[in-house]
Amino acid sequence: MREGGPGRRAGGNTGTAPWADLTTVQHLTDYEGQGERRPFTREELQKFFDYCDDRVDAAVRSRRKGALAAYRDATLFKVLYGWGLRRNEGCKLDLVDFHRNAAAPELGRYGMLQVRWGKATKGSPPRRRNVASVMPWVVEAVEDYVVNIRPRFGVQDHPALWLTERGGRLQPREVNDRFTAYRDAIGLPPELTPHSLRHSHVTHQIEDGVDPKFVQDQVGHRYASTTAIYTAVSGDFMNTMMRKALDRAFERDADMGDTG
């Protein structure tokens, strides 16, 4: 990840216990935090993205078939992380899903991403959401792909953002295959999946101090408790927050002692 280039209680103001909504069908449908899944550490994520870029460089240097696909997949993985997308959401993106954001004119047409195929609850259509672009370095990566790489697939009239060398839309199975090959090649643990990129987006945004409600809306969680369970912040971050909480508590105790 190149530089430049979390809260509210789950029960809200209803007076219910923080875990109360965990028993609802809707919440169980919304929850995605299967036990085997976890986010990347920042070091693992850097290693993974570096390897993606290395595969592109190697393919270009050798002038072998597959360079376009390697570039596409490297960019796709960065987009899944950069906008906190599910794998299927990413695969179904079209070129027209990127929009300008008046609050971020410097990002051009990539300031906002409309996700039209969000995860649906049973009996309901896919849930749409708009996701603000918050990582300029990923914006640069996708813009470069759109301008310089995608046209080389030779199917300009296709709406899909991610194209195959046969001129179709990239499918989730193909994303899984490439991710697994890269993960295993650099010795990352098997519990990391493409969905771990979405986990990592949530975790790293919370660690960096982004408002949890904003993160919740960005990734399309109905419940704050989903985002809280879904998030796994690093030990360093937890220790820092614990230290700050303890320092505040000791300061309050000292102030109360002074007024006694």
How would you briefly describe this protein structure?
By secondary structure, this protein is mainly alpha-helical. The protein is 49% helix and 6% strand.
> What is the third-level CATH name, the topology?
hpI Integrase, Chain A
Could you report the average pLDDT, rounded to the nearest whole number? 79
Major sheet details: 3 strands, antiparallel
Helix content: 40-55%
Query: Topology as H/E string?
Result: HHHHEEEHHHHHH
CATH 2nd-level architecture: Orthogonal Bundle
Uncertain parts: 2-31
Instruction: Kindly state the number of beta strands.
Output: 3
The number of domains is 1
Organism: Streptomyces chengmaiensis
Keywords: DNA integration, DNA recombination
Protein name: Tyrosine-type recombinase/integrase
Domain Tyr recombinase: 35-243
Draw up the topology in text.
Elements: H1 25-30, H2 42-62, H3 67-82, H4 87-91, E1 98-99, E2 112-118, E3 127-132, H5 136-149, H6 172-185, H7 195-207, H8 212-219, H9 224-230, H10 235-258
Antiparallel strand pairs: 1-2, 2-3
Subcellular location: Cytoplasm
Pfam family, one: Phage_integrase
Domain Tyr recombinase: 35-243
Q: Keywords, please?
A:
260 residues; three-stranded antiparallel β-sheet; 3 strands; disordered N terminus
Structure description:
The protein is mainly alpha-helical and 260 residues long. It has a single domain, classed as Orthogonal Bundle (hpI Integrase, Chain A), CATH 1.10.443. The chain contains ten helices and three strands. The protein has helices at residues 25-30, 42-62, 67-82, 87-91, 136-149, 172-185, 195-207, 212-219, 224-230, 235-258, and strands spanning 98-99, 112-118, 127-132. A three-stranded antiparallel sheet has the order 1-2-3. Helix 2 (42-62) runs antiparallel to helix 3, helix 3 runs antiparallel to helix 5 (136-149) and helix 3 (67-82) crosses helix 7 (195-207). It is globular. It comes from Streptomyces chengmaiensis. Residues 35-243 form the Tyr recombinase domain. Keywords: DNA integration, DNA recombination.
